[in-house]
Specification:
By secondary structure, this protein is of the alpha+beta class. It has 4 domains: about 170 residues, no CATH class; about 190 residues, no CATH class; about 160 residues, no CATH class; about 180 residues, no CATH class. A hairpin with a 5-residue loop joins strand 1 and strand 2. The chain starts with a helix and ends with a helix.
C-alpha cells in the first residue's frame, strides 16, 4: 500500500508526463483489445449451436482441387450410403414474391430438407420446424418457417400467425414456425425457409448439375477426415454412375466454423498483428519517457540506498509506478475498445457482424488484463533496473546533478530503433494496400456504371410457368419503363455484374473432336432488351441480340466475350460457330463483346457467354440507363412496373456505382484500419525520437556550450544532433526493411497487381519516414544550436 500511495503521488506530481504516458498506453491497449474482441468472437468463439464441432459443410472437390457446389445425385448417394452422419441437409437459395396483404415484396429465403433445423439443434421461437414428411413427394409440402425480422416487419409480431397461410409466389403456404434472429449460419439472414422436395425436379437426381450446398452433423466420435474418407470410398464404388469427366473429382468435408470464417481469418489476423505492433511502439515510447526521468530520480534512489533500501525494494517501487500507469492506461483502453468495436461493427456486414456481436466473455477481459500487466512490466523493467543500479553512490558525490550512464543512452537508442523498424513495417503494409487499392479502382469493369439504376425482379413459376412467359413479361416491363421520362435504355440480366457470383455450365463446340471431355466450363448469363447498350459493353465483332432473338420461334443464337473467343476459338473465327449446352439444341455465335468484370473488380476469370433470356428463364435484374440522376427515377420506375403487374415486387434498388463501391468495401475498411495503425505508429516513433533527442540536448547543454566556446559553429552543433538522430533512424530503417520483406508476404492474397516487395512502395515509405524523422530531429537540433555559451559555462561553474 505504501508503494501504491507513493506511486500515485509521483504521478500526480508530474501531470504532463502522466497524461502523455496514460494516453499512449490507452491507445495501444484499446486498439489491441478492440481487434482481439472481434478475433475472439469470429475465430475463437464456437458457432452458437449445440455441439458446434460436429457441424460440417460438404463439397464436391473438382479435379483442380477447388471445392464447389454439390449435385443432387451426389447428395442422394451420400445420404443413402454414408454411416458417419447423424443427418445431412441440402441448402439452396430461393427468392419469392410475398403478396396478399400490403405492397408486394420480394423476399429471399432457403430451400432445405426437413432435417435442417434439427441438425443445427435450432428450435424456433414460436411454433415448430419441418416434419419428416414435409420434404417428401406427395407430402404436405406447402409450409413455411419465417425469420423473426420478416415476422416483425410485415406481420407486426402477430403470435397468432402460426397456423395461418401466406402467399409466396402465388401459392398458399402455412406458417409453422418463427426463427430467432441470427439463427442460421448464412452470410445474410434469410426471410424464410421452405422444404425442398427432392425428386420433384429432374436435376435433383443428376450427378452433373451442381447447384446445392450441403451441411451435416457428424455422429459422436467421427472426425471430418474420417467422414471424408468414407464419402470418397462411396464415390469410388459408384464411379460408373458418375459422368466420365468427373473421374478425377472427389469429396471435401470441412468443419462449418472453418467454412464460415475462412475468408475473414487472414484479414483479422493481419489486423491483430498490426495493432500488436502499435502496442509495442506505445510501450517503447513510455519506456523512453521513464528512462528520460532516470536522471531526475537518481538522487532519490541514491538516498533510499544510503538509508538501507536493497535493490529489489527499489525495483518493486518503480515497477509499482509502471503498473499503476499501465492500469490507468488499460482502464481507459478498455473503454476505447468498446467504442471502437461499435465503429468496426458499423463497417461489418452479414455473418461477420452477427458473429462479432457475440456476448463479451471473460476471455476478452482476461486478455485486456494480461496485456495491461505485460505492458506495465515490459516498459517499467528497464527503467527499474537503471534506477536501482549499483553506481548510485556516485550520484551523491556528484552533488545532485545526476549521472548519465552510457547504458541508459544505449537502451533509449535501441528503443527508438525498434520503434522506427515497427513503424516502417506497418507503413510498408499500408503503402502496399494503398497502391493495390488505387490500381483496383483504376480497373475498367468493362461497362459504364455512371447513370445506371438496377433492381431485382422475381417471377414465380405458378404465375409464369415457362421461360417464354417470363421473357414476355420482362419485355412488357421494359417497354413500359422505357417511356418513363429520363430513361434512355433498358435491359435485363439473370446475373448482374458486381454481385459476387456467376453461374457456370459446360459448353461443347459442335463438330469439334479435340475438346475437353464433357466440354468447356464457361460462365453464362441470360439477357434481353438492350442489355449490352444499357451497360455500355462494347461490341467487337458481329452483332448483339435483337428483340426477335428472345423467342423460341427463332434460331437460337449466343454472344460470347473476347476471352471466351480466345479460349475456345484461338485459331478460328468465332462468328458462325455452333455450340450446345445442357441439351442437343445448337446455338450459333453471332457476336463478340468486350470482357466484363462480373463478380468483382479483381475477378481474373473473364470467359463468358450470353444467351437470350428466353432459353434460360429465371429471375434477375432490370437495368435502366438514364440521363438524369438514377436515384430520382427509382419510384417512377417502381410505379411503372406496378402498372404492368400490381403484384410484382421490386427489391434491392441501387445504382451500379453503389454495387462497385460495395464490392471493394472490405478492402477499403482493411486499408483504413491498417493505415490508421501505421499513422499512429509513425507519430509515436517521431514523438519518441523527438523526446529522446530533446532530453539528450538538455543533458548535454553544458557540453554544447563548451564546444561553442572553443570555436564550434552552430552548423557543427546542428550536424552533431542531426547525425545522432538520423543514424538511429537509418538503423531502424534497415531492420524495418528486413522485417517488412518477411511480413508483407502475408498480404500477397490481398494485393492486386502489386508485389509484396514492390520497390516503389518501399522507397516511398522510407522517404516518408526519413522526412518525419528529419523534422523530429530538426527541432532539438535547432534548440541545441541556439545554446548561449556564456550561460552554459556559468551554469557549469
Amino acid at each position: 500500500m505504501n508503494d501504491l500511495k507513493f506511486a500515485f503521488r509521483q504521478l500526480l506530481k508530474n501531470p504532463g508526463f502522466t497524461a502523455v504516458a496514460v494516453l499512449t498506453l490507452a491507445l495501444g491497449i484499446g486498439a489491441t483489445t478492440a481487434i482481439f474482441s472481434i478475433v475472439n468472437a469470429v475465430l475463437l468463439h464456437p458457432l452458437p449451436y449445440e455441439q458446434p464441432g460436429q457441424l460440417v459443410t460438404l463439397f464436391e472437390l473438382r479435379s483442380d482441387r477447388n471445392t464447389g457446389p454439390v449435385s443432387g445425385g451426389a447428395f442422394l448417394d451420400w445420404r443413402e450410403h454414408s454411416t458417419s452422419f447423424d443427418g445431412l441437409s441440402v441448402v439452396g437459395g430461393l427468392s419469392a414474391n410475398l403478396t396478399g396483404s400490403g405492397q408486394p415484396e420480394r423476399i429471399n429465403g432457403l430451400r432445405v430438407n426437413a432435417d435442417y433445423l434439427r441438425l443445427l439443434r435450432e428450435q424456433p421461437l414460436v411454433g415448430r420446424g419441418f416434419l419428416p414428411e414435409e420434404d417428401q413427394l406427395g407430402g404436405a409440402n406447402k409450409v413455411v418457417v419465417l425469420a423473426r425480422g420478416l415476422w416483425q416487419r410485415r406481420f407486426g409480431r402477430d403470435t397468432n400467425l402460426v397456423g395461418k397461410s401466406i402467399l409466396l409466389d402465388g401459392e398458399s403456404r402455412t406458417v409453422v414456425g418463427i426463427l430467432r434472429p441470427g439463427a442460421l449460419p448464412t452470410e445474410n439472414d434469410p426471410d424464410f425457409l421452405v422444404p425442398i422436395v427432392l425428386g420433384s425436379r429432374e436435376w435433383h437426381r443428376s450427378r452433373s448439375s451442381h447447384n446445392l450446398s450441403v451441411i451435416g452433423r457428424l455422429k459422436p466420435g467421427i472426425t471430418p477426415d474420417g467422414a471424408q474418407a468414407e464419402l470418397v470410398s462411396i464415390k469410388q464404388r459408384l464411379e460408373s454412375e458418375y459422368p466420365s469427366w468427373k473421374k478425377d473429382w472427389s469429396v471435401a468435408v470441412v468443419p462449418m466454423h472453418e467454412r464460415v470464417t475462412g475468408d475473414m481469418k487472414p484479414t483479422l489476423l493481419m489486423l491483430l498483428g498490426a495493432v500488436g505492433c502499435v502496442l509495442l511502439v506505445a510501450c517503447a515510447n513510455v519506456a523512453n519517457l521513464l528512462l528520460s526521468r532516470v536522471v531526475a530520480r537518481q538522487r532519490e534512489m541514491a538516498v533510499r540506498a544510503a538509508l538501507g533500501a536493497n535493490r529489489w525494494r527499489m525495483i518493486r517501487q518503480v515497477l509499482t509506478e509502471s503498473l499503476v500507469l499501465a492500469g490507468l492506461g488499460g482502464t481507459l483502453g478498455v473503454l476505447i475498445a468498446y467504442g471502437s468495436v461499435e465503429i468496426l461493427l458499423g463497417w461489418s456486414q452479414g455473418l461477420l457482424r452477427r458473429l462479432a456481436e457475440a456476448p463479451v466473455d471473460g476471455r476478452i477481459l482476461a486478455f485486456a488484463l494480461l496485456i495491461t500487466l505485460g505492458t506495465g512490466v515490459g516498459f517499467g523493467l528497464l527503467p527499474a533496473l537503471q534506477l536501482s543500479g549499483p553506481n548510485l553512490g556516485s550520484v551523491l558525490k556528484a552533488g545532485g546533478r545526476g549521472v548519465v550512464t552510457g547504458s541508459r543512452g544505449r537502451l533509449q537508442s535501441g528503443l527508438i530503433v525498434a520503434e522506427v523498424a515497427l513503424a516502417l513495417m506497418l507503413l510498408t503494409g499500408a503503402g502496399l494496400l494503398v497502391r493495390s487499392f488505387a490500381r483496383l479502382l483504376n480497373v475498367s469493369p468493362g461497362f459504364v456504371a455512371e447513370g445506371v439504376l438496377a433492381m431485382d425482379l422475381s417471377m414465380p413459376g405458378v404465375k409464369f410457368p415457362s421461360a417464354t412467359a417470363k421473357a414476355e413479361f420482362v419485355q412488357r416491363l421494359a417497354d413500359r419503363v422505357a417511356v418513363v421520362p429520363g430513361v434512355d435504355r433498358t435491359g435485363f440480366t439473370i446475373s448482374m455484374p458486381m454481385q459476387g457470383w456467376s453461374g457456370d455450365m459446360l459448353m461443347r463446340v459442335v463438330g469439334r473432336q479435340d475438346q475437353p471431355e464433357g466440354g468447356y466450363g464457361v460462365r453464362y448469363d441470360g439477357v434481353s432488351g438492350d442489355y449490352f447498350q444499357t451497360l455500355g459493353i462494347p461490341l467487337l465483332r458481329g452483332r448483339t441480340f435483337s428483340r426477335a432473338d428472345n423467342s423460341t420461334n427463332m434460331p437460337p443464337v449466343v454472344v460470347c466475350n473476347e476471352s471466351l473467343a480466345k479460349k475456345v476459338f484461338p485459331d478460328q473465327d468465332p462468328l458462325g460457330q455452333r455450340v450446345r449446352f445442357f441439351d442437343d439444341t445448337q446455338y450459333e455465335v453471332v457476336g463478340v463483346v468486350a470482357d466484363v468484370k462480373q463478380t468483382r473488380l479483381d475477378d481474373h476469370r473473364a470467359d463468358r457467354i450470353y444467351l437470350p433470356h428466353v432459353f434460360l428463364g429465371g429471375d434477375g435484374s432490370l437495368i435502366v440507363r438514364t440521363h438524369v440522376s438514377p436515384a430520382s427515377l427509382a419510384e417512377p420506375i417502381r410505379q411503372a412496373i406496378l402498372e404492368v403487374d400490381g403484384e410484382q415486387p421490386v427489391s434491392n434498388v441501387r445504382t451500379l456505382e453503389q454495387d462497385i463501391a460495395k464490392s471493394v468495401a472490405t478492402r477499403w475498411h482493411t486499408l483504413t484500419l491498417l493505415g490508421l495503425f501505421a499513422a499512429v505508429a509513425l507519430s509515436l516513433a517521431a514523438l519518441g525520437l523527438y523526446g529522446v533527442l530533446a532530453h539528450a540536448v538538455a543533458l548535454r547543454r553544458n557540453e554544447i556550450g563548451i564546444r561553442m566556446a572553443l570555436g564550434a559553429q552552430r552548423s557543427d552543433v546542428l550536424r552533431l544532433v542531426l547525425r545522432h538522430g538520423l543514424g538511429l533512424t537509418l538503423l531502424g530503417l534497415g531492420l524495418g526493411f528486413a522485417g517488412a520483406l518477411a511480413l508483407t508476404r502475408v498480404l500477397r492474397n490481398q494485393l492486386y497487381e502489386v508485389g509484396p516487395t514492390d520497390p516503389l512502395t518501399f522507397a516511398a515509405v522510407a522517404l516518408l519516414l526519413l522526412l518525419v524523422a528529419l523534422l523530429a530531429c530538426w527541432l532539438p537540433a535547432r534548440r541545441a544550436a541556439r545554446v548561449d555559451p556564456m550561460v552554459a559555462l556559468r551554469n557549469e561553474g
